[in-house]
Amino acid sequence: METGVGVGMGGGGEHRGDEGRGPRTRDHPPGEVKVYVMVHQKSPHVLCVTQRLRNTELIDPSFQWHGPKGKIISENSTTHITTTGSLVFQDFEESMTGAYTCFLEYKPTVEEAVKNVQLKFIVYAYREPHFYYQFTARYHSAPCNSIYNISFENKLLQILSKLVHDIKCEVSLQKSECHHVKMQKAGFQNELFFKFAVSCIDTEKEPKPCDDNTCDYSKQLSKAKNLIERFFSQQVEVLGRRASPLPQIYYIEDTLQMVWINRCFPGYGISAAKHPKCPECCVICSPGSYNPSDGTHCLHCNSSLVFGAKTCL
């Protein structure tokens, strides 16, 4: 038995659509069904039947599919139409996103006239969210106008970058500020407030998923996180073994904080309201919206007329 999608991105979903011209049936499906297909992956079967017709005998059925570029032939390098009329994408490209319509003709019985059903789908490309870790840390510092703080900042970034270089990750400074801090039961001291991001390189810049296990983004980033946390933990240990006086600039224990931040590729966004069947997916932006950066939202844009817009012109 063939399984397929009609209302979600997994197998087993139900197809529903609008009936076309010709004798009416008792089906009353909604106008367009949203289908989600991961970029560069094979799709589940998109079924050209309504829920009622899936369990009904059809005499002499014929199926015809039309996509954004016109009629789809039964065999080509990117799509395949099965003998039962289902549409399968072999290697889904984001340019294949758009409206698809299946025209089904059949006889309920040998004696009855031909029935016509028209099923409409919007097929969306989607990607898994990519994410990065954002760290904050505080250091006791030299006076805020001291050049030693700038020198230390550069050295710290070099050390952190070298730590994660071999696992193809990178560290980028997001903010560095020096402040005068009033301590409890003490006077003022100078502190450096660092904020930096840790992300991994290969899967950020390469649109196709890696086959090699070393390219697994989550594993790479988890290793990078562990290395960063160990580095700051070792700073505390070294400082604890040090005889006084303390160095002018040193890490303040327990100030390292970390948050996980989601992001999508440009032209994609996350919206549980618009895509409830794929609520955590980075779905390609619809016409009328765009995403110029690696944020998580498709922004409104009246002049955007294509899927996956990265600019609003």
TrEMBL record:
Residues 1-12 have a biased composition (Gly residues). InterPro entries: Ig-like_dom, Ig-like_dom_sf, Ig-like_fold, Sp38-bd, ZPBP1/2_C, ZPBP1/2_N. It comes from the Eukaryota. Residues 23-118 form the Ig-like domain. It is found in: Cytoplasmic vesicle, Secretory vesicle, Acrosome; Secreted. It holds the Pfam family Sp38. Residues 1-30 are annotated as: Disordered. One of its GO terms (cellular component) is zona pellucida receptor complex. Keywords: Cytoplasmic vesicle, Glycoprotein, Secreted. Belongs to the zona pellucida-binding protein Sp38 family. This is Zona pellucida-binding protein 1. It comes from Myotis brandtii (Brandt's bat).
